[in-house]
Amino acid sequence: MGQPLIYLYEQMKEEQVESLRQMTPDHIIIDAKRESAQINDDDIEIMLGWDDTLGQRLLASETSRLKWVQSVSAGVDSYDLKRFAEKGILLSNASGIHSISISEHVLGVLLAEFRGIRTSVVNQSKKEWTRKNITYRQLSKQKMLIVGTGHIGQQLAVFAQGLGLQTYGVNTSGHVTNGFIECYSHKNMSRIVNEMDIVVNILPLTDETYQMYNERMFLAMKPGTVFVNVGRGPSVNTNDLVHALETEQLSFAALDVFEEEPLPEDSPLWQMENVLITPHISGLTPEFKTKLMRIFTQNLSQFLKEGTLAKNEIALHQGY
């Protein structure tokens, strides 16, 4: 077995790679997007980003020394968490990096709808100066239910309160979290969702959250509710969502994630006037790699000393 490797599947800046080399003199750094060096897969101890083809080989190998993977996304539902747990591989995510971007996105799509901006963009493309089809509402004082009160949910609550919204939260246990008037548990969500004007999904995808937004949940909502999904597409039953929009149980939906991506051309969502579609862009973040490197180097420093992680470690049995 050779010298342990740190495999950078996510391409970083050259100066960032050099700083990692300075941190880890006992490891070989492989910058996968720039180098084509022949390596022994089993020597990879740490991976930044996830090369699924290579990763599956490592998970199947009885001699792999892989000990830790740093994901570049907040969601980790694409990983084989059961296999990670069986092999004792640590997994950390990029939670926190996208909180401002996603929060701004949520408020942006809401303002576009509530202030008639979305309709005005359509009218502009047709060179129509008209107010006849412009509808507007006051976003301030609306009750917003933020489903998922982690880094992103808390940031969204702060921003939303700045615009005068009343923010409520849903999390696993219903524990109180900063930025929320009140929080509720997942199991009690259907009981209180009918009091809310806006429901924003930010949950990761787990067995418990798969298709949780279905006909039953939509019917539990107040007629005319606004729904925003910046969490995971498979948390929503698309057919039930379409029906809720057609019957105006939901007055409007802003959707950034979908069960199937790209969204198929024959999806009825494309043609619905009360839907705003964005192509999974809410998490796009300026200086992403700089922010990711801060998480990775903090974790790397502690991993090299103690074999543990400093932040964002995933509880593999929970999925987040």
TrEMBL record:
<dbReference type="Pfam" id="PF00389">
    <property type="entry name" value="2-Hacid_dh"/>
</dbReference>
<dbReference type="InterPro" id="IPR036291">
    <property type="entry name" value="NAD(P)-bd_dom_sf"/>
</dbReference>
<keyword id="KW-0560">Oxidoreductase</keyword>
<dbReference type="InterPro" id="IPR006139">
    <property type="entry name" value="D-isomer_2_OHA_DH_cat_dom"/>
</dbReference>
<dbReference type="InterPro" id="IPR006140">
    <property type="entry name" value="D-isomer_DH_NAD-bd"/>
</dbReference>
<feature type="domain" description="D-isomer specific 2-hydroxyacid dehydrogenase NAD-binding">
    <location>
        <begin position="108"/>
        <end position="282"/>
    </location>
</feature>
<dbReference type="Pfam" id="PF02826">
    <property type="entry name" value="2-Hacid_dh_C"/>
</dbReference>
<dbReference type="GO" id="GO:0051287">
    <property type="term" value="F:NAD binding"/>
</dbReference>
<keyword id="KW-0520">NAD</keyword>
<protein>
    <submittedName>
        <fullName>Hydroxyacid dehydrogenase</fullName>
    </submittedName>
</protein>
<comment type="similarity">
    <text>Belongs to the D-isomer specific 2-hydroxyacid dehydrogenase family.</text>
</comment>
<feature type="domain" description="D-isomer specific 2-hydroxyacid dehydrogenase catalytic">
    <location>
        <begin position="7"/>
        <end position="310"/>
    </location>
</feature>
<dbReference type="GO" id="GO:0016616">
    <property type="term" value="F:oxidoreductase activity, acting on the CH-OH group of donors, NAD or NADP as acceptor"/>
</dbReference>
